[in-house]
Description:
Layout: H1 6-15, E1 31-42, E2 45-50, H2 51-57, H3 59-62, H4 75-87, E3 92-95, E4 103-126, E5 132-152, E6 158-167, H5 176-198, E7 202-208, E8 211-212, E9 215-216, E10 218-221, E11 233-242, E12 245-261, E13 264-271, H6 273-282, E14 286-290
Parallel strand pairs: 1-3, 1-4
Antiparallel strand pairs: 1-2, 4-5, 5-6, 7-10, 7-14, 8-9, 10-13, 11-12, 11-14, 12-13
Amino acid sequence: xxxxxxxxxxxxxxxxxxxxxxxxxxxxxxxxxxxxxxxxxxxxxxxxxxxxxxxxxxxxxxxxxxxxxxxxxxxxxxxxxxxxxxxxxxxxxxxxxxxxxxxxxxxxxxxxxxxxxxxxxxxxxxxxxxxxxxxxxxxxxxxxxxxxxxxxxxxxxxxxxxxxxxxxxxxxxxxxxxxxxxxxxxxxxxxxxxxxxxxxxxxxxxxxxxxxxxxxxxxxxxxxxxxxxxxxxxxxxxxxxxxxxxxxxxxxxxxxxxxxxxxxxxxxxxxxxxxxxxxxxxxxxxxxxxxx
Length: 292
C-alpha cells in the first residue's frame, strides 16, 4: 500500500465518505461512471495517462524521490487526485475499466495547468534597539487545473467543466513542491464539491421536530448515512405544480445535526424557522436539496 505524505493524507480525510449502495427515498439515482484517459496538455505538449496506470507510477512523487520541479513529474499525482475527487461524489459510482454494464458516463480529463510560482519580497524592519535591517521572505504558490468531460453513453451528450485547485503565494508553503501538493489536494476537494452540487441530494421533510413559539427549530429528513454525514447543508422549499411543471418556493436552510439511520437524519433549522413551521401547519409538501 502506498505511503502518502501528510498533505495528501489530509485531502483523503476530507473526502472520506460512505459509498452509496441504494437510492434511499428514490429521489437520488446513483450514476455509474467509468474513468477514461487523463491527459496533460500545456501548449504543444501532450501526454496521455490512463486511470488504470495511475497508481503504478504515482509512488515516485508520493515517496519524495522527485527532487527537481518539472510539471510532468506531477501528472500521476494530479491524475490520482482527479480520480479521488470523482470517487467520493455522493451520487456517482466509479467502476473498474472492465465493468461496463449500466455505466452512464465516460469521464475523461485534461490537466491544463500544473504550475508553481515563487515570489521574493524584502521588508524594512527595526530591531528592539531601533536598528534598521532588511528581511527577505520567499513565498510559494501553485495552481492545478483540470477540464473534466462527461459523455452520456446513452444520449451522446457531452459536458465539460473546468475546475482548479490553488495554493496562495501567501500560504505557509515552504517550497514549490509543497505548494503544488497543496493545490492538488484542493483540486480533489473542489471536484468533489462541484459534482456534489451538480448532482445534489434531495430529501423529503418527513416530520417536524422541536419547535419554539412560532418557529421550527429541528426537523427530520428521509436521507441518512448511506448518502450524507453530519454538517451537510440543505435549502428547504415548498413544492408546487404549474402547468405540469414543478415549482419551488424557498423557505430556509437546515444543517444535518445527526444521522439516525440509513434513511433518516435529524436537522437543525438555521434560517426560515417561522416560514417552515407555517408550511408544516398548512400541510404543504416540503423538500430539502443539498447545497454542499
